[in-house]
Amino acid sequence: MNDSHAPKDQDLTSTIHLSALRSVPKPRPLEEIFGQLTLAEREVVSQLPSNSAMLIVIAGPSKGARYLINNSETTIGRDPQNEIFLDDVTVSRKHAQITRAPSGEFLVEDLGSLNGSYLNAHQVQKSNLAIGDEIQIGKYRLTYFKGRGN
User: Fold this and answer.
1) pTM for the complete prediction?
2) Which stretch of DSSP H or E encloses residue 141?
3) DSSP secondary structure letters along 14-36
4) Which of 22, 36, 109, 135 is 20 to 30 A from residue 115's alpha carbon, by CA?
């Protein structure tokens, strides 16, 4: 019997990227962001030198953790050898990097992580940072502050 007229199996699967379905919050005013900091955190941020920055976990896992960024490159990941060590399976061993551009501005760059890096709820490969930006790496949400000098 010849089955040449029978329908061939068709692959009807597709990929849905759940990150595209994420809720994107409205930008928060800086006053609201600074209002979430403790008095001690506000004092530390106000004393940051102009060539440095800081990531502060305002809410969620590791709330209150502060990470000073004062090198030209700062790696973030699950490997303890990273400058910023985030110990969770949602974080790749070498997940992301913060770099200081010659202009003095800081950038975040994903290093090919499995779960991606997010800036203000948008997945990014590489992007400039502004005061109050929220970087999400795995389950960690870190808020960016840049030093203005004393």
Assistant:
1) 0.80
2) strand 140-146
3) ----GGGG---PPPPPHHHHHHT
4) 36
